[in-house]
């Protein structure tokens, strides 16, 4: 399965960019004008059930998405590449790491789901599971995970994109996959360079959660904290995000 994608740049360092649960590849739109397209070649992909692949059927799991990422890299002729994964994309990236660590230059997680998944309490579980059918619950999740501090117009725009560019069945299935999968024993001790970027206003996948998971399991992991961001750094701090990602990849 070759995933629909946008190719940006012509540099020698190849980078696959993986979106989160609530949005497709267009979620990275705010960072596109600031990318170093001479040093890097970026591929922004849509998983099955999202964006241009909204009508593509599948099991809608993070493991399946990871295999599709590898198939897409093969189709592009990318023997080695780096990964950037936002939120759910961080879990997908770790499945790629397990399957083909020798092909990865580096891994960057933006508010990434840990390899242990996310253990919801009952109230949170109901909020997230209901979001497949209820746009207002998607809006509540967006508001919660950005610290209840962003404009209503932004929340409305994010919900509009999310509902318009995701298949409900896929959306619901991916939730169970990224939240209930536990692969942390498979990633512990792996030496791929890892950068974790967390928002200070994200109460769910907070800097503290990153320290207790990613930094415990990856010996070459680094953590950077955005003091003026929650869960959606591509929208909240696009310039800082590009600077941190490309600075790390250049090293």
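^ Assign residues to that structure.
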């Amino acid at each position: 399965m070759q995933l629909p994608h946008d190719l940006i740049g012509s540099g020698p360092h190849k980078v696959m960019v993986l979106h989160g649960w609530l949005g497709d590849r267009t979620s990275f739109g705010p960072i596109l004008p600031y990318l170093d397209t001479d040093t890097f070649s970026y591929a922004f992909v849509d998983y099955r059930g999202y964006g241009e692949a909204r009508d593509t059927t599948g099991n809608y799991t993070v493991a399946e998405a990871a295999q599709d990422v590898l198939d897409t890299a093969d189709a592009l002729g990318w023997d080695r590449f780096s990964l950037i994964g936002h939120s759910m994309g961080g879990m997908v990236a770790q499945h790629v790491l397990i399957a083909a660590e020798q092909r990865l230059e580096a891994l960057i997680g933006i508010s990434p789901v840990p390899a242990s998944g996310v253990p919801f309490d009952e109230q949170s579980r109901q909020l997230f599971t209901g979001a497949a059918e209820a746009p207002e619950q998607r809006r509540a999740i967006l508001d919660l995970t950005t610290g209840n501090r962003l404009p209503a117009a932004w929340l409305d725009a994010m919900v509009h994109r999310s509902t318009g560019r995701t298949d409900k069945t896929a959306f619901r299935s991916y939730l169970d996959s990224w939240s209930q999968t536990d692969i942390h024993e498979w990633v512990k001790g792996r030496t791929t360079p890892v950068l974790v970027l967390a928002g200070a206003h994200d109460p769910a996948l907070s800097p503290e959660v990153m320290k207790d998971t990613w930094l415990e399991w990856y010996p070459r992991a680094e953590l950077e904290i955005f003091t003026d961001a929650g869960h959606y750094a591509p929208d909240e701090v696009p310039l800082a995000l590009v600077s941190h990602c490309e600075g790390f990849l250049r090293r």
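The beta strands are 5-8, 13-18, 40-45, 81-86, 104-110, 194-199, 221-226.
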